[in-house]
Amino acid sequence: MIELTGFIALYIVMLTAFVGIEIISRVPVILHTPLMSGSNFVHGIVVVGAMVALGHAETTLGQVIGFIGVALGAGNAVGGYVVTERMLEMFKSSKGEKA
């Protein structure tokens, strides 16, 4: 098994952040909410990967980076579900209104 040192883990996090920013910046604004709600499963995979990296980290820097990855991935997944719930609430009709 390949062991990740703290600097390699930091390089991977920085590289993925850069790629993510480049991909998201090219998405039209009107598609952000549907894409976020449709890609919540990806955030779950990110959290699992960060947990694996955190479990195999041998240095303090690796553990810190792994913890940050777990926290950010979990926050992103929860935020995606919150946005999806708010988006679905927009399409519900209120009971007091007549159609």
From TrEMBL:
Among the GO biological process terms of this entry, one is:
NADPH regeneration
Q: Where in the cell is it found?
A: Cell inner membrane
This protein's record includes keyword Transmembrane helix: yes
Class of this enzyme: translocase
> Where do transmembrane segments lie in this chain?
6-29, 63-83
Q: Which UniProt keywords apply?
A: Cell inner membrane, Cell membrane, Membrane, NAD, NADP, Translocase, Transmembrane, Transmembrane helix
Question: In its UniProt entry, what is this protein called?
Answer: proton-translocating NAD(P)(+) transhydrogenase
* Organism the protein comes from: Natronospira elongata
Taxonomic lineage from the root: Bacteria, Pseudomonadati, Pseudomonadota, Gammaproteobacteria, Natronospirales
